[in-house]
Amino acid sequence: MTGHLAVIGLGPGDAALLTPQAATALERASDVFGYGPYLARVPQRAGQLHHASDNREEVERARAALALAERGARVAIVSGGDAGVFGMAAAVFEAIEQGDPAWRALPVTVIPGVSALLAAAARVGAPLGHDFCAISLSDNLKAWETVTRRLDAAASAGFVIALYNPASRARPWQLGAAFEVLRRRLPGATPVVFATAVTRPDERIEITTLDAADPAGADMRTLVLVGTATTRRIERPGAAPFLYTPRSEA
Ligand code: SAH
Questions:
Q1: Which of 164, 165, 169, 220 to mutate to test the pocket of ligand 1 (most atoms within 8 A of CB)?
Q2: Most buried of 18, 103, 133, 167 (most Cβ within 10 A)?
Q3: What is the 3-state secondary structure (H, E, C) of the chain?
Q4: pLDDT per residue over 137-160, tens digit each?
């Protein structure tokens, strides 16, 4: 029997945003690997084994999944959002490149998911209507100087910026420092969105400005969107404003 590995994005939280392709691949799996809280979102069908692991052990988790697939199992490995966006997919390919040459012959499929930046943007209008980029504020795997250099370049170049991993208990100061870098390049009135736990029961969306943005509004379940000088805010009676970034620029 030949095994295989499916790398699956689960979407931002709501089961309705799990794609049918991802749901089918999960049903077919004999074994599902993932970080505990993500794995908890996968309904466990009879006979299916769930292998939960800690957040930091990504490459080890990828190796374990590949080794099991090599022995003939139908293995799935899951990430929140899209697995290719600051998720497990890159860890899987890192493991393949460095690991057992036999792993290169395994059928490996990456199944896309709805990334947090798409779900968060949809909640407030169309802030990603023009050029944008995504930057992780985690300095676990890169130098903080790299992060600030990219923030500065992205703001100077006029990209809307999606900030992943803005804060955690172990990284409490990074978002405040990031706002300081951005304030040197962008007008104080630039729209900023704190989108926390999007599509989950405790979802919270806050629309503010770069001047007023308080880093304390973010935790590890928050996606922060920073607009550009062209991002527009449409006020509405009795409702949150719409934000959008126009498709054309002068
Ligand atoms: N692969 C994931 C990102 C993993 S990195 C994706 O494509 O969405 C983890 C970061 O993603 C979190 O710190 C947060 O910034 C963001 N995130 C993931 N799910 C989210 C959600 N439901 N609401 C807001 N942000 C989310």
A1: 164
A2: 167
A3: CCCEEEEEECECCCHHHCCHHHHHHHHHCCEEEEEHHHHCCCCCCCCCEEEEECCCCHHHHHHHHHHHHHCCCEEEEEECECCCCCCHHHHHHHHHHHCCHHHHHCCEEEECCCCHHHHHHHHHEECCCCCEEEEECCCCCCCHHHHHHHHHHHHHCCCEEEEECCCECCECCHHHHHHHHHHCCCCCCCEEEEEECCCCCCCEEEEEECCCCCHHHCCCCEEEEECCCCCEEEEECCEEEEEECCCCCC
A4: 998 899 999 999 999 999 999 999
